[in-house]
Amino acid sequence: MSEEKINANKQKVDYWKILFKNEWSYVTGAVVIVVLATALVIVTGKSWGVTGILHLWGGKFLELIGVNADTWSIYNGALGKFNFWKSIPSITNVGIVLGALLSALLAASFKIKKIKSYKQVIAAILGGILMGVGARMAMGCNIGALFSGLSSFSLHGWVFFLFIFIGAMVESSMLKKWFM
Amino acid sequence: MAEKTLDCLGEACPVPLVKAQKELEKMQKGDVLIVNIDHSCAMKNIPDWAREAGHNVEIDEVGEGEWDIVIEKC
Fold first, then answer.
1. What is this structure's pTM?
2. Residue A68 to residue A59: CA distance in whole angstroms
3. Do B9 and A176 touch (CB under 8 A)?
4. Most B-contacting residue of A23, A25, A113 (CB-CB within 10 A), to test interface
5. What residue in B sits closest to A169 (Cα-Cα)?
6. Which residues on adjacent β-strands are paired with residue B8?
7. CA A61 to CA A9: how far, in whole Å?
8. How far, in Å, CA of A102 to CA of A95, rounded?
9. Are the C-beta atoms of residues B36 and B6 closer than 8 Å to each other?
10. Interchain pair A111, B64: CB under 8 A
C-alpha cells in the first residue's frame, strides 16, 4: 500500500467501532435512555417499569404447572385477563433481553460464560431472591421506582434512592466477606 | 519485575475490580498485573480505577467477549 493510501485509511472514521464496539459514555447512555423512556410514556401513557409485571408472570407459571392461583386475593382474576402480547411491561422486558443480546452480538463479544464455583451459584440465587422480594415489597425496582419515580418528580423515587444505596453497601460487604 | 495473572473469567462486578485492587496492593512498583475478564463492565471499571490511581493500563481483546487488562504499577 502506498503511504497516501495508508494515511487515507487512518483518516476513515470507524462507525462500527463508535456505535457498537466501544462502550458509550455514561452521558450518551443517559440521553438515549431518557429519549426512549419519554417516547414510551408518549406512546403508551405509562411510565417504564420492569418488575411490576413479574408477579403476573409468576402467577401464569403457577397456572401452567396446575396451581389455580387466579383465585388468590393478590390476583383476584387478573391472571385470566392477562394477555402477554398486550402487556407493555412484558414486551419491554423481552426487549431488554433481546437488546442486550443484540448489543453483544453487534460488538462481537457474545460469550457463554462458565460457572466458576458453587459459591457463585449461591450468590446469584440469593441475590436474585433478595432483589425480587425487595422489588415487590418496595412496589418497584430501580427502573419503576427509581428511574420513573425521579423523572416524574415523585418523592418516593428519592426515598428509594437513599435505601437502594444503603442496600447496595450492605450487599457488597456481604459479597466481599462470604463470596470472594 | 514480577508479572502476575489474575483469572477473573466468569466473574461479575464488582468481583474482578475488588480482586484486582487487592492483588495490586501486594505488588511492587514496576510489576505487571494481567487480569483476564469476560464481563464487559469490568472492562470499564478496572481501567477507570487503575488510570485514576496513576498506573499504566492497556486492554487486549483476546477473543470474542474476552479481554486481558494489563496494569503496570506506577
1. 0.82
2. 9
3. no
4. A113
5. B14
6. B37
7. 55
8. 10
9. yes
10. yes
CB A165 within 8 A of CB A61: no
Residue corresponding to grid cell 402467577: A59
Q: What are the CA-CA distances from residue B57 to residues A62, A162, B47 (Å)?
A: 50, 34, 6
CB atoms within 10 A of CB B44: 15
- Min distance A115 CA to chain B CA atoms (Å): 6
Closest CA in chain A for residue B37:
A113
The whole-angstrom separation of Cα B35 and Cα B68 is: 5
Cβ contact A121:A115 at 8 Å: yes
Integer CA distances (angstroms), A176 to A78, A147, A155, B14, B37, in order: 41, 28, 32, 9, 18
List chain B pLDDT tens, one digit each, 74 residues. Answer: 799 999 999 988 889 999 999 999 999 999 999 999 999 889 989 999 999 999 999 999 999 999 999 999 99
Q: ipTM of the predicted structure?
A: 0.77
- Nearest CB among B19, B44, B65 relative to A111 is that of B65
CA distance A169 to chain B (A): 12
Q: Is B8 among the catalytic positions?
A: no
Residue type, A144: G
Nearest-neighbour CA in chain B from A48: distance (Å): 24
CA atoms of B56 and B65, how far apart (whole Å):
22
